DNA sequence: CAATATCCTAGCAAATTGGTAGGATTTATA
DNA sequence: TATAAATCCTACCAATTTGCTAGGATATTG
């Protein structure tokens, strides 16, 4: 039941971009330095995030990445689903296209996994990047 | 964010044993037939479940497996933790021995994963084998 | 003693994970 | 108009995890 580094690093990267207030693009080099993740790996994470429309990029010198929406309108769930796929502790209760299964009817354990899926989704969807920025400020004024 | 087959098959196997009312040991051969999981693989799952004290075994002819406790006292969480390890969407918020991390203090994303962990645990710990037996009966009287 | 079970050790192919390498392309600025 | 700074793109790959199977040893019943 582990999240892969894609989701973890991806969320850190998105928060890193969100925290920057300058309105100037944030480079992967700077994210890499702050977050301790290689530029090459970050590049891979940016591809789906951009395709999904959560960020936009500026190419060339002084380029980098910017959020496409205000932090209030980007949830952790948006980011995690983009990088890890639909939430699905097991394939037969996937949010998107649940996998067919012979024993589906009368499969009681399926109900368990559906509850797990929903409880995870509830947490991820209730948190926005804005919330995490706030939390960051709180923990830094000490 | 997937559960492995160990947890899935293991829960099915445990429920299968729980549903048997005969007080006689349930063989892996019969579980295998009903659940569509090989005997060899089931054997592997029984080892930790037995070590954890959730089931006991009877060797030899007419042998098999029995629950060590009444279904009311075995939660889904007990089974999943036994087969999959402590609940931990990421290592730094593992229920058991959270992995150290340089950026632990001030790491806001950690709070997210802790919430996810707790919400998963809440679901798994609130469901017992008894609940699932009840659910099975309900879905079969139609 | 034969049949039926669990127990135990090993091994292994396929998939997934977590990256790296190397270059092509775009753009700001000196 | 070069040059440097960036993103973009394709490929590859080693290590780990997953999901098993094989083959036998041991225990128990009838």
Features:
homodimer; 142 residues; mainly alpha; Arc Repressor Mutant, subunit A; two-stranded antiparallel sheet; 6 helices; 6% strand; DNA-binding
Secondary structure: elements and pairs:
The structure is a homodimer of 142-residue chains.
Chain A: H1 5-19, H2 28-35, H3 39-51, E1 55-58, E2 64-67, H4 76-84, H5 109-125, H6 129-140
Antiparallel strand pairs in A: 1-2
Chain A binds a DNA duplex (30 and 30 nucleotides) through helix 3.
What does the model show?
The structure is a homodimer of 142-residue chains. The mean pLDDT of chain A is 96. The first copy, chain A, is elongated and about 60 Å long. The longest helix of chain A has 17 residues, at 109-125. By secondary structure, chain A is mainly α. In chain A, helix 1 packs across helix 4 (76-84), helix 1 packs across helix 6 (129-140) and helix 4 crosses helix 5. Chain A has one domain (5-141): Arc Repressor Mutant, subunit A (Orthogonal Bundle), CATH 1.10.10.10. Chain A has helices at residues 5-19, 28-35, 39-51, 76-84, 109-125, 129-140, and strands spanning 55-58, 64-67. The first copy, chain A, has a two-stranded antiparallel ribbon. Chain A binds chain B through residues 1-3, 7-8, 11-12, 15, 36, 76, 84, 87-91, 103, 105-106, 108-109, 111-113, 115-116, 119-120, 122-124, 127, 132, 135-136, 139-140, and chain B through 1-3, 7-8, 11-12, 15, 36, 76, 84, 87-91, 103, 105-106, 108-109, 111-113, 115-116, 119-120, 122-124, 127, 132, 135-136, 139-140. Chain A binds a DNA duplex (30 and 30 nucleotides) through helix 3.
């Amino acid at each position: 039941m582990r999240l892969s580094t894609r989701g973890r690093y991806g969320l850190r990267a998105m928060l890193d971009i969100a925290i920057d207030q300058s309105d100037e693009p944030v480079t992967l080099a700077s994210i890499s330095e702050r977050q301790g993740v290689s530029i090459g790996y970050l590049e891979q994470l940016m591809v789906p995030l951009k395709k999904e429309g959560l960020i936009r990029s500026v190419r060339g010198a002084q380029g980098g990445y910017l959020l496409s929406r205000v932090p209030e309108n980007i949830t952790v769930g948006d980011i995690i689903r983009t990088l890890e796929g639909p939430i699905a502790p097991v394939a037969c209760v996937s949010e998107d296209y649940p996998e067919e299964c012979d024993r589906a009817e009368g499969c009681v354990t399926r109900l368990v996994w559906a509850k797990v899926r929903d409880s995870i989704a509830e947490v991820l969807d209730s948190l926005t990047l804005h919330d995490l920025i706030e939390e960051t400020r709180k923990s830094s004024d000490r």
